[in-house]
Structures
1.
Amino acid sequence: MKKIFQWLDERFELDALVKFMGKKYVPIHSHSVWYYFGGVSLFLFIIQVITGILLLLYYKGGEDLAFESIQFIMSKVSFGWLIRSIHSWSANLFVLSAMIHMFSVVFERAYRKPRELTWLSGMLMFFLILGFGFSGYLLPWNELAFFATKVGTDIVGVIPMIGKPIMMLLRGGEEVTGATLTRFYGIHVAILPGMFTILLGLHLLFVQRQGMSEPIEFTNTPEHERETMPFFPNFFLRDLLLWLIVLNVLAILAVFFPWELGVKADPFASAPAGIQPEWYFMFMFQTLKMIPSHVLFIDGELLGIGLFGLAGLVWTLIPFWDRKTARGEHNRFINYIAFFAICYIILLTTIGWLS
Amino acid sequence: MQENTQQKRRDFLQYILGGSFLAWLGAIIYPVLSYLKPPKQAEVEVNSVNVGKSSSIALNSGQIIKFGTKPVLLVRTAQGNFKAFSAVCTHLDCTVQYKNDLGLIWCACHNGKYDLNGRNISGPPPRPLSEYRVTLQGDDVLVSKIA
């Protein structure tokens, strides 16, 4: 082992890399636990890539083949049910973990100068994760996915001027058909992973270059009172241990609650009663359900979509308008916004589930 | 004077270079965007569909029929009258159904409701459903577009 390392070290100067990693420190404070969610998200992305590649070996795109090929994977291929179940569960945990990571960054103000671009790359990745969820949802070509895609792409079509052409581009025509499935397949397995990998590379590069973010209170404490831990190997080993725990949770979920396939999509069937989207789109779905058809002179759907678009934009640009935090002062207003967003998501999701 | 001429030449070359770059970018983007735009496919224009025998359609029931590539909801009311509407909800494109316990047309996606004239009466749908004509030829039920 030592000889292999020496052989590589002679050629690539690995020693310098190890020394560089040893220089990175993780601040220890009462909120240190939130540092782990970035790593957990990365781990779940790796799981998604591996299980996704395995599913690709048997999945067949197309209106007449997609549902049947997933059925084949789940019933005939050895451990096919497990791979598919892990892929679906891991996708959901990935969204959850990325969401926790995002909110913790806001509460810790880790987006503040000089980490504006780290936040921006993270937010773009978060939108891509939602895109992964939305595009992957259609691939089994089942009833729920069919209507979710109809609604989701129609929402894009509501945007004035550019909405309709984008909707046509996504659907591959006027309606949700096999052409949509083919496009979503390409988006899910090629376009999104390509974009995500570039952003992930940038995000990690920024984190490496700038080091871990410190809360404002931590920065304000005298240097001799600050506690830190080397990233490598101390924090890295803790990360690995948590990844192992996540893998076990994933295995338990996949084995005891296998992901259902549902009923094959029929474009000439009515939307079934009790139809609901994935949990992470539920609050938006419920809001659209509750907004009346017209509010003053505006179409209800346009109003809802416009408000969500605006909220998403304001949220994404936090580091650029939160000047108080950039000056190193504590801005309580950000806490109120983040707290309101969490309460809104939980409340509307609960109402959606109960109704 | 000479400097001025040189500056003009430099500006001219910059315009040429910038213009060429934009033209080159356009030559790449235009075919890609055109490729992404799905081509129009010729569809057989359907003006009328024979649904079947009226005697086989139960009172107070609804069914989705294929009208070319579009779904159409055919309703037979409790009184025995036939009504047909586009089955595409005007809110967000879901496919509606007939709720026989309420005697209404209902969209399961966002709880939109329409009466039996296709009018949006509750929930988020912004417009009524477009109506189709139903005619009886003997015992046959025909659904056709209203011109």
2.
Amino acid sequence: MNPEILEGFLQASLPMSLMATAAGSLLGLIVGMIPGMTISTGIIIVLPVTFVLDPVISVSLLLGLYVGGMMGGSFAAVLLNIPGTPSASATAIDGYPMSVRGEAGLALGTAIIASFIGGLFSFFCLYFIAPLLAEVALQFRAPDLFSLVFFGLTIICSFAAKSLVKGLLSAVIGLMLVTVGMDPVMGTARFTFGEVNMMGGIHFLTAMIGLFAVPQLIENLISSQAGQSDERAQSRIISLLPNLKQLSRMIKPVSIGSITGAFLGILPGVGGPIAAFISYDYTKKLSKNQQDFGKGCIEGIAAPESANNAVTGGALIPMMTLGIPGDPVTAILIGALMIHGLSPGPLLFMERGDFAYSVIFAFFWANIFNLIIALSALRLLVKLLATPKALLMPSIAILCVVGSYSLRNNFFDVYVMFFFGLLGLAMRWLNMPVVPLLLALVLGGQLEEHLRVALTGSRGDVSIFFTSPVSLLFLILSMVSIIWSFYSARKGKKDG
Amino acid sequence: MSTIKKMLCQFMALLYIIFFAATASAGFPDRAIEFIIPFGAGGGADIEGRLLAKEMSKVLGVPLTPINKPGAGGAITYTYLVNSKPDGYTIGWNSTSVLTTTNLGNTDFDYDAMDHIGRVEYQPQPFVVKADAAWKSFKDFVSDCRNNPNTYKIANSGTGSATHTAAIAVMNAINCQVIHLPKGIKGRNASVLSGEAHAMVAPLTGAVRLAKAGKLRILAVPTSKRNAVIPDVPTMAELGYDAELDLFRGLSVAPGTPQSIKDKLFEAMSKAANSKAFKGLAKKKGFTVDPMGPKAFTAHLRSENTKVKNIFKSAGLYKSK
């Protein structure tokens, strides 16, 4: 074996490194659970500490936080219907209904196991095929990225199956809201009405907090005033861990999620939310019991959870081999490593192979510790549900305000959050699905940017989207995705 | 219950004492200072700014709290700064963006709406191609580009950003028409490596590592003097072209801040800039620490502002909002 690999493994397995991984994982879990606190925020909090620590220990801490944060985001999504991180949005679709049914323990257990497998899978990708995959991903140009994001948007059709008009309207509202702020290509202001704060655009998480949390809070308030019994507080925790039969149901979604997540993680700037939604959608399409999705089924949790944790290892691949970040967190990680004079990139494996491998093994340990810590914290966290709503709901309301402020330290975002709260309420009254709007908000910016950059490059020639094989492939996949959604929706209607 | 109340009273009393003790001393600074970073967490501005803030707080004896207020190419931070109290407790970590975002028309004021403490560091923005590009020298590119106008794609970090501004300046100087691709900070390097863009203009710190790894080649720097980090790369001035636009960073405060406070801040800024930690970071990343006082910096900003204005006018970007 390459002595550098062994040296890297030993460095990452020192007691201090392992302790840092565990601490990071726990912190990540907490940060991920608080709405409005992203993994990026968590890393920024501990960043000053890493300046004085040994590089390997710093990396262990940061990677622990990265992996733990992904997990924590899902906890909040399942327990409170408020995804702690954007990547956990898809988990809320099936996680929260399970939690309402009193199966929060099972939902979380599924999420933890799926996350672990997804994370481990991406570790092996990172270890074995990192350089190979990085080269492939680097070949993605603007037209290809556009088609990929477009493919991501076609998922809207599956969420709009009940009423296509309402689903598409919801997506269009989202796409329109994305245009507020700076024009991504011309750099000038759009729809800001002279308000400088509008120029920063609408932060996706601000919108998400408003859309998910505010209607939830209002609904709870109404039900408690009406004197309805507090069903969640009384619900029993049926089981904590999935049994063998349930585990076997997870095999397919986890395989889809892990592969999708690891590959999409490698593409710079694509990130967890898209991977989670795509794998959710495909698991649903390939499933025999589609009608269960959205009502709380473990497949609907396993797929996005394995995907969003597989993204973490995937995103480390271009970071380690090319110095190109795959998502905002790896961008910060590059910065953190540079403070120590270790610049990720092609030179790192040549000059400091031992360190490069210690990063890879620190990621391995982060996944192990995340499993242990999440499982041991599970019982405690499920008890959160038993907290009286009179205490829980005001705390969440406060977190919503603090969270939307602290994203960009701008109080204007708090008003934006409340605006989205009202929008979410209106959409609920109109029975309009929120997910298409959310998807449009996540993907709309990238969609526009890649489309316009691609067309700038080709001087307005649209044929580039069909002449590039990668782009063509994703466009064909988009067609398949749309036709499939309609076909299965019709079949579902006939059967029902 | 009563013990809790008692403790609360004691705590309030303590806060009261601390508060009064603080306001009683007249000297600046006697409380934490906000250090506003106009860009998001993890970028160059953030990492360099946070370290400077840490070193400055050692000199001033109060914490400098770094706060990221990203958005609109820095316009949100600069607007916040212009409207802040002129007491020195809000400092902005400016950059070339103070000239670009204002001249794009993202704010209704110019760079001179703030008081400037000084410059801390700068770095050139070189013209970079892929290592296996056919152009071995900048001359090769110039002649090829003149023969094939509107063909080559030059990546930058965003329309109206410092890299885009420098790219326009370089293309104006060599009299060549190209397609500017706003690929963003994350996509810029990748687009050159993938061949989507034929070249890019990037901050030195963003390109130097890939260049040293043999993946990219730096053809020229739009400066008048060679840079110590890349001593072999010819300058635009040497090649006979007039194009110079650095990426600088420095400190600004609200307009009307008392001179004595500005002096104190400048002193702390210089000490922090010359600290071992900050100089170490500069060496690792490849930027140049070169503190400049308020007078020199304001004069520098004035001349650079005219330059940016003219570049934007030539490209139809001036106040294009």
3.
Amino acid sequence: MTAEATTEKARIGAPSIAGFTEEGEHLVAAKVDRHHSHGTQVMASRAERLTSHDVADFALPNGREEEWRFTPVRELANLLADSPSEEGALGVSIEAPAAVIQRTLRSGEAPRGATLVPADRAAVVASANTADAQLISIPANAELDAPVRLVLTGNGAGRRSNSHLVIEAGANSRGVVIIEHDGTADHNGNVEVLVRDGAHLTVVSVQMWEGEAKHLAQHDAEVGKDAVYKHIAVTLGGRIVRLNSNVRFAGEGAEAELLGLYYADAGQHLEHRSFVDHNVGNCKSNVLYKGALQGKGAHTVWVGDVLIQKQAEGTDSYEKNQNLVLTDGCRADSVPNLEIETGLIEGAGHASATGRFDDEHLFYLMARGIPEDVARRLVVRGFLNEIIQQIKVPALEERLTEAVERELAASEN
Amino acid sequence: MSTLEIKDLHVSIETEQGTKEILKGVSLIIRTGETHAIMGPNGSGKSTLASTIAGHPRYTVTSGTITLDGEDVLAMSVDERARAGVFLAMQYPVEVPGVTMTNFLRTAKTAIDGEAPKLRTWTKDVKDAMEKLRIDADFAQRNVNEGFSGGEKKRVEILQLELFKPKFAVLDETDSGLDVDALKIVSEGVNRAHSEGNMGTLLITHYTRILRYIKPDFVHVFVDGQVVEEGGPELADRLEEEGYDRYAKGAGAATVAAPAAAQA
């Protein structure tokens, strides 16, 4: 594969992060399984993955499929069934500046369904069981003075809900859309994002579910010429969360940034998958997911696919995942995949590192008078803040910082 | 005046082959204002002494005491020791992910002093201290020790020494891996902290060259977990010429002499 050679050349010299050296990876290999696709297995191209609007095309997964192999599918029967939403399972509230157009879209009603074509069983049953998709449309040239805020509240553990949200950022518009999830439910949520030419759109999906919530999601975006799209997934709560954030391009000069932050506690399975399809030349992408893990059975998964198609000359892409393991008994799976079909690119790199906050870090900070709890907070806060500060919505940044603090406090009890 | 007293200290570590005793009865008294050099060959237990004073969890004290003005240091946690005024400049400072130097220095200073430093003077103090140690200003925004060279890490250790103003500093092979210029810069920093803060210094080194820049009042020679000889600065000169060979050869005799030397 030419992919590997290009990768090495382009990015292997990227600065390493403290505690996240190659050595750091090996250090935790005994306790934390790592998966890396380098030459260990022959995988089908990501481009060949099935996508379809037809439920019949997707069998129920058994957990052995490539796209489900890390996921506890046996616990997802309710979510993977071709079932309608339960009445009242999910409450939705929307706050939006006056300029924003809100209406619903039937199945097949444009622009619904053109950008998001379900790529797995969860996504296909979600859309099939959502008669009316919510449209949030920012008119062309509009510059929103406040974010659009959707709050999706689950009204009971095990209660099935499906949703399909379509976000359209008109040409040259500017806007931020925040989707917050709280309460508890079995929620299948698709988000379809159209970023028209020259638009700048940030979509933040916050998973602050309680207790037993299960949430499967496919977020697909198409980014137009010279447009800038930022997708930020923040996952702190929920028993099982699996969020797939995918992007492709509709014109040259576009930029996409897929960011993520997750913090898994005992018994939580938090999975994030990203796929950047460089189907058009001269576009840029950057993927960065950072996660912290603490407590027995805390499990995180990140699978990052980047495909640079033959015609996508001049592509500049990079993807990275970093995990910070705070206690024994956690498992962080991290799989960066990079496929490159042309050598005529600006850059393509991928990196993954899982490090422990270990006794030596703790000793160093404590030897400077810093108490243990403060030392731990200092490290985790700093590590995760890199993502939080990308949101650029102060009120939300503050709430997320507080939420991370609560996670940290929980680790000390 | 403060006194750091180490009395008949025995320290062991757990290895795959079982428990191994590293320090076999070490006694030292260091007063503020004094500089003690501990010299010895590799593997003699010098760094174990340093790490034990700071409270590194790898080392188990099996008997003996360490007291600071009569207070039991061994009963204190690692952070309590630092707040009591003991500072260890580490031989291999670790990189700490996610924490900027600025944030780290302020957090540590706040912990040690029990109150946050006044922002304006603190910022200036940090800037001045960094300049004196020829540390690039942009280090302040980098994560603690992240990507720093060996020499830069040592300078950053001394930066902390100057900013935190401990009563006692233990310098664990601070000179190793430094070129002559860096050695001078680091030594000047130690000398500033010593004279301005009336600090007591325990300087652990394999080589005599740092003693050209930092003048010890006392020299203790460590061999096989014990102090085998003690004297004034002239002892360092002798080691410069003769090396540690004579202790290795006459190990038996030196060991016998040790308790007497320790009591001196």
4.
Amino acid sequence: MPEVIMPKMGDAMEEGTLLKWLMSEGDEVSEGDAIAEIETDKVTMELEAEDSGTLAELIADEGQDVAVGQPIAFIQAEGEEAPSRTEKGGEAEGEEGGGGEGGEAPTATATQTDAPKEEEPEQPSGGEQQANGRSNGQFRASPIVRRLAGENDLDLSKIEGSGPAGRIVERDVRAALEDGSAKRDGGGEEEVDGQNGQAEAQAQPVQASQGSLQAAKLPEPTGWPGTTLVEPTRMMRVIGERMTEAKQNIPHFYATVEVRMDNAMALRKQLNEQLEAEGVKLSVNDFVMKACAVALRNYPNLNALYTSKGVELHGAVNMAMAVALDQGLITPVIRDIGSKGLAAISRESKELARKAREGELKPDEYQGGTITVSNMGMFGIESFTAIVTPPQAAIIAVSSIVKRPSYDENNEVVPASMMKLTLSADHRIANGRDGALYMAEVQKTLENPVLLMV
Amino acid sequence: MPAENGNSENGDVGREETRGEGTVATSGNGLVDVYREMVMVRTFEEACQKGFRSGKIGGYLHVYIGEEAVASGFLSAFKEGDRVITAYRDHPHALILGAEPKNVMAELYGKGTGLVKGKGGSMHLFDVENGLMGGYGIVGGHIPLGVGMAYAQRYQGSDHITQLYLGDGSMSNGAFHEAANLAGLWGKEGLCPCLFIVENNQYGMGTSVERTTAMTDLAAKFDAYGIENEKVDGMDVEAVMEVAQRAADHVRETGKPYAVEALTYRTASHGAADFMEKYRTKDEVDEWRQRDPIGLLEKKLLENGELDEEKLEEIKGETKELIDDAVKFADESDQPDISELYTDVYAGEDEYLGEK
Amino acid sequence: MAETKTYREALRDAMVHELDRDESVVLMGEDIGVYGGTHLITDGLYDEYGPKRIMDTPISEGGFTGAAIGMAMLGMRPIVEMMTWNFSFLASDQIIQNAAKVRYFSGGQVEVPLVIRGPNGGGVQLSAQHTHSLENLYGHFPGLKVVSPVTPNDAKGMMLTAVRDPNPVIFLEAGALYGTKGEVGEGDNAVPFGKARIAREGTDVTLIAYGRQVSLCMRAADALEEEDGVSAEVIDLRSIRPFDEDTLVKSVEKTHRAVAVQEQWKWFGVASEVAAIIQEQAFDYLDAPVQRVSGAEVPAPYARNLELAAFPSEKMVANAARRTLYIEEK
């Protein structure tokens, strides 16, 4: 049965108002007859029938707004039956009643009052931490800063921002990474950039962490009066893990010699007098390092790295020298030390030590060592052994020079300056005999220091 | 020298299966066929009005009711290879040139089977294969294009012409004057075979010609650009056909533009949304309806015996069936695939440059 | 092989190359023929190719641009000269309403292989009506391609690409640089659209520009290096639509800072687009808000000092870079 619809009379017309019926149900209509008055947003007009027949049913009431395209009446041609009113009406009502958004509304009050507090990001709240870089508990930090902080596990509350309004900017984070401050407290696997990571950077991949603070195996702190709980610094942890791993995995053996240092001391004194004008002051350690390097010429398997594919023998000696820092140690490297003279070694070792203490070492200045010398002579140590730094084959521990009675060739007692050197070596790479012969060579070289000049 | 036909490789837009069985329009140039064509256009336009009122057709809708003799008459002089360009009252041009009513209706219904895949709607019918270079929605904006097309036809060495349809309203637009000036200029060298066809239906929307220009002789405006011109009774399809043939031949032969002002009348409203008709009286409309082009031709054909009542009913019945099928096809067709949103923005490798 | 040519010669070379290669190519515009072109870009071509291919038009931008669109729709490849882009407003209905959209609203039935070219931007005291940078205006419309080469080599290479592109190309020339020289590749050295050029490599801040402002950025980068030890990377966008987001984003991922430079007005410009793309795609790499350096929000003035003040300067660019580096402005 043809329906009379609310016609679309404008591009933007969505509904119209049925103002008045001009005909009644049951009236006969012909195409073109005005059957109702409708009103749009633009105009009032008569609605003409597009079909002929009997006006079977008036669906819309006068005054009602009807969407474009919706039926407002039916015209029944001869022999047709009227459709049931509910069919069409129900549909329309369903559309209007359904699709409401009421279901979610009632919770709004609760979320408005409670939610914000819960969602606030956790922030340290002490007064002293209200430094630059944040306001109202929010840090001002550039996106790259947040990214770097996340990657390096930094606590931004410990970094002072140098940007506008205290914004933490990239250079602030780079500085924090360099000096090792701003580490986030607490455990967890970490990765760092810059100097803090140098011990790690040198290491072979550390597998399952055997670190000193593995919570599962360790006792709880006693909490007794008089105790202080010190959390390890990041550097302590890294060193601890690496040394644990080295000591557990590397089959160490040791060889100690006692070296008479009188000739070396005399030569050192003589050279230092001559070199004073140039500002060079040779240290005992410079002699020891040079001697260790010279002696390696005949023992290449002690100047070697233990690698995944075998032992890599190195021609040039890259001498790592341990430098103690307040919170740990670092081993800058003098490259190809064998080819360098004492004065050059002296200058370089001093510069590297200074950089190490001031945190200025670059990765290529502390990576790539092939053997290490660790000197604790300045602390009055008579002898000690060191742990091999993987993947190197050996480390030489240098102790103090001690004056002792000694016999000369006439069996007369004479004072002698004696120093103990202890080799620690990786038995997977070298055997005891190699170690012993090598240490004897070092001894001979230091006792006849002219050999250092050859 | 490149081929002179439409340059798009994918210009057929997958409509092959829905067209090609020959239309009412292309079956001949006898007056009965012209009559049948005009009835088809009228019936189509009435179905459009109904589709618009029922909300099936969106946007703007401009029907050609009352003006059928103009398009029918001029397109009777169309030769294969010629080009047609017009404004937004473009349904008859598409239909008469051979587009299937169902594809045209599907376009208006916003369906993927539409003449331009549902991307243009009523105002942008294109059928490059059959010569229709488009309907355009900005008054006057298409006129320079038509002039350029005519230049291209001569530059490329063909004897094809461009039929450029424009309304009276567009002749106050700068684009018309600039394009007419160029056409006259290029025509001096025989390089602009452009046939301007002014569909003067007396009103630009609701503003009469008298109220838009002091020089109401629209054909004479072409004099200013050195373009020969004349007028024709746009309600008398026979007269239009005669002028069309003569003008088209002249343009084809000389490569010079020519203009014909066809006086006609839109008995329907400007747009389907334009129902107020404050700008004209019912009497005026009724007066023009007396000269309805279909009515005039029908009367003549009945009088000279080319048609009888029975044949008349047969034509109307067939036409109704054709258009009813078109509506059904449009209604039942699927909307364009949503992926079509991103196609045809650019030709060549990058069809689309944005984020999807 | 490359030889040194002016920007003007490079453009002419490209058009001659295409006129010779493809007979469907024609040139249209005001005074491009007998007169030789206001900027002498087309000098001599009229004698060589004749009036059917080198078409002097009346002063009628909407008319001849529209006609060119119609020609292109039938398979010709017109190159339309806007004597300056300032006149293109008269043709903007044709460019925007027809050229950009006709392929789409025809459902892919037509192509518009059209180039519209001419000098863009100011800098030579032409004052308000003759000083516009329209890359953002035309860059806004899907269906158009918009390029803005600054080196003579790109002027030639991108013109070759433009003529061969099956779409309408808005070719914005650095008018103030027509006389500048540079190495230009010989022969068919087409430069693709949508690929930015790294004009200078750097590590600390990325300066992004196109057209004439690229030269400005190069000078600013030199100043930054000399005065602050800052290493600036300079990106020449070359192509506004399509836009090379990758090069831009990769650079900012490296430098963490960006300055977008444009001659046009600040609001709703290309620099805003650059800033938006960076924050969308490289947010986590930024160390400072992206800076925009733009023209003053005034119609272009005439007096030399006012005009200079209305456009971005080397100093403005360098200082914007310094702001991103949190170092003192100079």
